[in-house]
Amino acid sequence: MSPAVQIALAVALVVVVFLLLLALRRGRPRDLVAPDRPAGDGQAEVLRLARAGRTVEAVKVLREQTGLSLLDAKRAVDVLAAGGTWSPGPPAPGKGVDDAVRAEAARLLYRGKKIQAIKVVREHTHMSLADAKRYVEGL
């Protein structure tokens, strides 16, 4: 291979790498300022963020406070942003699990009996199968 072809291939490689790095960089957020943290009254903070148009931050704070799914939190924030009201409703799965049930599920999980642990959680909490599975996997 001639030196001219080798140089052309090297230049082409450098250009491709540069374009890939540029494409990857465009996918990153450019705002390096950390979002405001809730100060005390979390519900007021969610409402303030929602009405200020900071939907992503409001959804994140609401999910941290309530354990809602992403979709449910987004819907609640949309209602708040539109001037409506929203109440938390029942606790998220796993929030009110009895200590004895948690201990039994953890014991079964530790012994490699994941399915039995999920059954125990479901029997005592009336969670859905998916919620009980997520709960047990989070132990």
Please tell me about this protein's structure.
Helices cover 65% and strands 0% of the residues. It is mostly helical and 139 residues long. Among the domains are: 41-89, no CATH class; 99-138, no CATH class. Helix 2 crosses helix 4 and helix 5 (99-110) packs antiparallel against helix 6 (114-125). The chain is flat. The protein starts with a helix and ends with a helix.
Write the layout of secondary structure elements.
Elements (H helix, E strand, L loop, with lengths): L2 H24 L15 H10 L3 H12 L3 H12 L17 H12 L3 H12 L3 H9 L2
Helix pairs in contact: 2-3, 2-4, 3-4, 5-6, 6-7
Quick structural overview:
It comes from Micromonospora tulbaghiae. By secondary structure, the chain is mostly helical.
Unreliable stretches, pLDDT < 50, 5 or more residues?
28-40
Please tell me the overall pLDDT. Answer: 77
Helices, by number, come to 7
Number of E-state strands: 0
In quaternary terms, these chains amount to single chain
H-E string: HHHHHHH
Give the helix proportion (percent range): 55-70%
Report the sheet-strand fraction.
under 5%
The global form is: flat
Radius of gyration: 25 Å
Please summarize the sheet with the most strands.
none
Structural class, please?
Answer: mainly alpha
C-alpha end-to-end distance: 61 Å
InterPro entries: Ribosomal_bL12_C/ClpS-like
Protein name: 50S ribosomal protein L7/L12
Transmembrane segments: 6-24
GO cellular component, one term: ribosome
